[in-house]
């Protein structure tokens, strides 16, 4: 299985929202925070196709991610995979591509999400714990 990347266009919003909800639903329900209207508003506020890419496997969009450049760093706003595509190395593949730019990377992960262990395993360190999210940072070794 070799993943490929595809560009995002405005017309992809609804499909990406559905994927985001599918990827986050279990964690958000566990926290009592699942709300499709909030999911829509949050994605809409961060929907920048020029920074987003679909992750495609065997012709199917199985995830997407957003990397925003900001002041010499990268902000990973989203890295969502369909539940059936998780645990197959796709997230690591994306992180390796982003890390290869050699810039510091920041991101937030939902508290009590399995994503926290994933980011810790991939060299991110906790920089701040908030009410619902945990902020992480990665920097290339000197």
TrEMBL record:
It is an enzyme of class 2 (transferase). Residues 3-142 form the N-acetyltransferase domain. Keywords: Acyltransferase, Transferase. One of its GO terms (molecular function) is acyltransferase activity. Pfam families: Acetyltransf_7 (PF13508). SUPFAM superfamilies: Acyl-CoA N-acyltransferases (Nat) (SSF55729). Its EC number is 2.3.-.-. This is GNAT family N-acetyltransferase. It comes from Pelomonas lactea.
């Amino acid at each position: 299985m070799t993943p490929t990347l595809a560009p995002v266009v405005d017309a992809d919003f609804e499909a990406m929202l559905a994927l985001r909800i599918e990827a986050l639903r279990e964690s958000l329900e566990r926290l009592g925070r699942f709300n499709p209207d909030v999911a829509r508003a949050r994605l809409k506020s961060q929907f920048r196709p020029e920074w987003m890419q679909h992750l495609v496997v065997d012709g199917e969009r199985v995830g997407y991610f957003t990397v925003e450049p900001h002041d010499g760093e990268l902000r990973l706003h989203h890295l969502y995979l369909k539940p059936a595509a998780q645990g197959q190395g796709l997230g690591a593949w994306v992180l390796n591509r982003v890390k290869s730019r050699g810039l510091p990377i920041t991101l937030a992960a939902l508290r009590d999400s399995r994503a926290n262990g994933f980011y810790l395993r991939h060299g991110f360190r906790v920089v701040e714990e908030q009410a619902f999210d945990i902020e992480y940072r990665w920097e290339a070794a000197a």
